[in-house]
Amino acid sequence: MRKVIIFLLFIISFVQLNAQQYNYSQIVLSDSAQISLLTNTPWNGAVYALYGHTSIRVHDPIRKIDSVFNYGIFNMSKENFMVLYVKGETDYMVVAIEYCHYLKEYRERGVGVIEQVYNLTQKEKQEIFDALVINSLPENRVYRYNHFYNNCSTRPRDIIEKYVNGKIEYTPTNKQQTYRDLVHECVDIQPWTKFGIDLVIGAGADKIITDRQKDFLPLYLMNANEGAKIKTDSTERKLILSTAYILQPIPLVKDNTIPPLTVGIMLLIFTICLSVWIYRKKLYILGKIFDTLLFLIAGTGGCIIFFLMFFSEHPCTNPNWNIIWLNPLQLPVALLFFVKPLTKCLSYYHFINFVALLLFLPAWCLMPQQLEIAFIPYILSVCLRSGMNVLQQKTKKKADYSLPKAIR
Q1: CA of 176: how far to CAs of 71, 172, 210, in Å?
Q2: 8-state DSSP, 42
Q3: Total domains in the fold of the chain
Q4: Are residues 338 and 296 in the same domain?
Q5: Are residues 57 and 92 in the same domain?
Q6: Which of 35, 77, 85, 345 is the one with CA 20 to 30 A from 330?
Q7: pLDDT tens across 120-134, in order?
Q8: With 0-12 CB in 10 A as exposed, 13-18 as middle and 19+ as buried, what is 79?
């Protein structure tokens, strides 16, 4: 019921503000006006919320304006939304929301909100406000979202930089970090989310990035603002006048499901035991059933990685060295295990796959991509089954040659 009420308040606020936006362009802000950055702390109610959120607040008590310009609005009910999301063609939009409704929504979620009031001249406030109003008009509000390069955090930063008179010198992090490092910071409380992300982002996520590139995370932008200065040839001033917690966050709860590494080790132990039993008892049909399931899952993962590498606009997905052990060929191979005429061809595939995976593991440290330790038992399970298929084929051949020619 609470969610329904919050959603209705959002719609009412949205309609009211849309009716006002054309009049906003005629408003001259008073000397009491303030423009501030609102940073929302991470929330584990949705994967995208683990990264936090950023918005811009414009508050003018004289003109009776208290609006939050939110660049993080998207429509999940849009036709083919999930297809567009996987392709990296998701469109977000900026919407002005009444501050009271904005705050109520995040209070209900237990999300912290930190406000940083900018130290701006009257001219800068007016130009930023005008730009926000123009941005949020129906014909301008939609933009192509990109998680690392163009999101709810980078857009507010860019607007402030554009209309501030001078150059902003941000507080440095003094850390060498990659996109993967920062993503891990956000998703560590959900090991399976971290596992999945590490599967699909490639070598591009492991390059050292600049402090400016780190601003895709709201908390990093907030920290960069603290102590930052606006400099011209003759003047210098602080970027932020004041910082205050508007809402205190509820602590995040760590996911207590069995972690991927533990599941992988269990799978590897099961695969070893099953493989020994199948080989000794010659239960080759059981082996084919297990291999079909294993390679079907691995092949599906490979198809996803292949699609993201070559047909998606998502950043840092190509190249991705995980495609060596999760490759699309495993999908058709899984469907052909019971086709007898292709036994020889499948034997060649298993030999190539076995050798490739054996070389892949020792070459790990030479690759320009960080690979999760949790991947190892899964890689070994696939490698073992390919190796066992090669061994079984050789054993069959020896058995056939030992038979009299008449029986063969």
Answers
A1: 28, 11, 8
A2: P
A3: 2
A4: yes
A5: yes
A6: 85
A7: 999 999 999 999 999
A8: exposed
